[in-house]
Amino acid sequence: MSRCAPPLCLWLAVVLLAPLHAKVTAPAQQHAALGLPFMLGCNVTTEDGEVLKQVRWLDVRNKTILHYQPQRPGDLISHDGVELAKQRAHTSAIALEKVKAGDEGCYTCVFDVYPTGQQQGKTCLSVTARVESVGNKTAVQGKPVTLSCSYGLTEKVQQVLWRKTAEQGDTVTVASYTKQGSVTVETVFQDRVKLSRSLGHSQLTINPVHTEDEGCYTCDFHTYPLGSKSMTACLAVYVLPRPEVSYSIDVDVVQANCTAVSRPPAELIWNVENHNRSLGPSETSSYQQGDGTTMVVSTIHLQAKLLDEEQVTCTALHQGLETNISVHLNRTRNTHIILLSVGCVVLVLLICLCVCLKKC
Ligand SMILES: *[C@@H]1O[C@H](CO)[C@@H](O)[C@H](O)[C@H]1NC(C)=O
Ligand SMILES: *[C@@H]1O[C@H](CO)[C@@H](O)[C@H](O)[C@H]1NC(C)=O
Ligand SMILES: *[C@@H]1O[C@H](CO)[C@@H](O)[C@H](O)[C@H]1NC(C)=O
Ligand SMILES: *[C@@H]1O[C@H](CO)[C@@H](O)[C@H](O)[C@H]1NC(C)=O
Ligand SMILES: *[C@@H]1O[C@H](CO)[C@@H](O)[C@H](O)[C@H]1NC(C)=O
Ligand SMILES: *[C@@H]1O[C@H](CO)[C@@H](O)[C@H](O)[C@H]1NC(C)=O
């Protein structure tokens, strides 16, 4: 028996065991995003004298989804949503038009090589999805608001859980819905919060919304076996301003206040209506109210006769308003007050006159 030196043995072994015929390679595992196109490919290496006669692709259920003969390009047979993406001497790739949840699994590429016989490759696809949400929302106090989140791989979801993080940073559970079909709403939210019975498109409705509902809401899809998938969107709650004006007259100077309570604070602008000019300067002060709203008071001083000549308005601007609200300094009440003041002055003068006449 002749013995060989170890490096030579290794070389002999490699040469003797190396395939002398076609070989298929393909990536073992790939991740594809739900709803997007994806390409799967296999490579085949052939030796001299070997001819590739036919290529077949089988889907996750071992059904043929694509089938062609490289030498007869016209004879392609493919299923809906699957296309031949690449057909070269050594590569065959298929494109999935839009990845669906059911596309997950292993695909087989089958190469019929003459005269060697059939060669197979396998490549496995796992489908991933992200939680979608409409993003941050604003709501008006007293009105309903719905927050929603979607996750495409519904059949993997075991539970949907909604949590709320208030501005101060503490997080509480709001509601949950499980695969078994039970909805749980925490006691503190029970009278105003509803959760939809859906594992894919989850909707949390608050009706009516209160200022203390402001905060960030996280929807958490507990999936198996992918783990937790979540998304956070913040809710801002507005209180709309209802501006009011009041004024007092001192000789011929009017001091007017425009007052609006809102959240966040409104901006108040004084102007002369139908004219392109603002009245100024005005003094603005704001006061925090206990309920999360702010009272803004804007004060101006103006000549009393301006009130008779022009319509003076206070306009409240607020991001929650579709159109800003204007209120007028009421001229009719103004004339009443002037008449009253004139009346008082006349009365005083008459009394003085009487007193004078009696004394003199
Ligand atoms: C297949 O071949 C291409 C080049 O032709 C290469 O880029 C790719 O990485 C190969 N894939 C595998 C799985 O071997
Ligand atoms: C597909 O065929 C392979 C063997 O070729 C087998 O192991 C596998 O279980 C089959 N899959 C299905 C879903 O029938
Ligand atoms: C949503 O609101 C939060 C807090 O108000 C903020 O940090 C975040 O950037 C906002 N996100 C978007 C997309 O506007
Ligand atoms: C206007 O507001 C100030 C305080 O901001 C108050 O002192 C004043 O009495 C108010 N005047 C009127 C006419 O309401
Ligand atoms: C408003 O004022 C601007 C300048 O402040 C002027 O250019 C414009 O013509 C004015 N428009 C009207 C309608 O008066
Ligand atoms: C009132 O609102 C409109 C938009 O709705 C805005 O363009 C306009 O500037 C506002 N008026 C004033 C006085 O700022």
From TrEMBL:
Entry's transmembrane regions: 337-357
Keywords, sorted A to Z: Disulfide bond, Glycoprotein, Immunoglobulin domain, Membrane, Signal, Transmembrane, Transmembrane helix
Record's GO cellular component terms: axon; cell surface; membrane; neuronal cell body
KW Ribosomal protein (keyword) present: no
Domain Ig-like residues, every copy: 19-109, 115-232
Signal peptide limits: 1-22
SUPFAM superfamilies found in the cross-reference section: Immunoglobulin
InterPro entries found in the cross-reference section: CD80_C2-set (IPR013162), Ig-like_dom (IPR007110), Ig-like_dom_sf (IPR036179), Ig-like_fold (IPR013783), Ig_sub (IPR003599), Ig_V-set (IPR013106), OX2G-like (IPR047164)
Bilayer topology term: Single-pass membrane protein
GO BP annotations, alphabetical order: heterotypic cell-cell adhesion; negative regulation of neuroinflammatory response
Gene Ontology MF terms in the entry: cell-cell adhesion mediator activity
Compartments in which it is found: Membrane
PANTHER family assigned to the protein according to its UniProt record, in alphabetical order: OX-2 MEMBRANE GLYCOPROTEIN (PTHR46841), SC:D189 (PTHR46841:SF4)
Protein name as catalogued: Sc:d189
Organism field: Astyanax mexicanus (Blind cave fish)
